[in-house]
Specification:
mainly alpha, 2 domains, two-stranded antiparallel ribbon, 5 helices, 2 strands, 8% strand, elongated
């Protein structure tokens, strides 16, 4: 089983790689100025690329479940007792009171998240 990287070391290298991308130096010159080896630089560059934080679109395809949070409506509620599906990335889907439309929307969201299969409605 792979070990989890040390968060402090991960942050250090993440910051270091950001500094490199903002610099005009070659990898060799940058590593020399940072006091690290070129091989360590490439190791961490690969490691952080492979373990990047998911984007909002990634959450739709990799999360086994999507979080659901009920709260007071900050935005207008759809008319006729509808509901709003809020997705990562500030995506909102307002659904009216038609149960078949609501079910279709939920089926599609669950299918996109990998929770439900399209031929098996929730």
């Amino acid at each position: 089983m792979a070990r989890r990287p040390d968060p402090a070391k991960t942050r250090l290298w993440s910051d270091r790689l950001k500094r490199f991308s903002d610099s005009a130096q070659t990898v060799t010159d940058f590593c020399r100025s940072e006091g690290v080896s070129v091989s360590a630089f490439h190791y961490w560059k690969r490691r952080l690329k492979n373990h990047a934080l998911p984007t909002p679109n990634d959450a739709l395809t990799t999360a086994p479940f999507l979080p659901v949070r009920l709260a007071e409506a900050a935005a207008p509620v759809p008319p006729n007792n509808g509901f709003i599906v809020r997705l990562p990335g500030a995506i909102e889907i307002a659904v009216g009171s038609d149960p078949s439309v609501g079910r279709l929307v939920l089926d599609k969201v669950l299918h996109a998240s990998g929770v439900a299969q399209e031929d098996k409605p929730c």
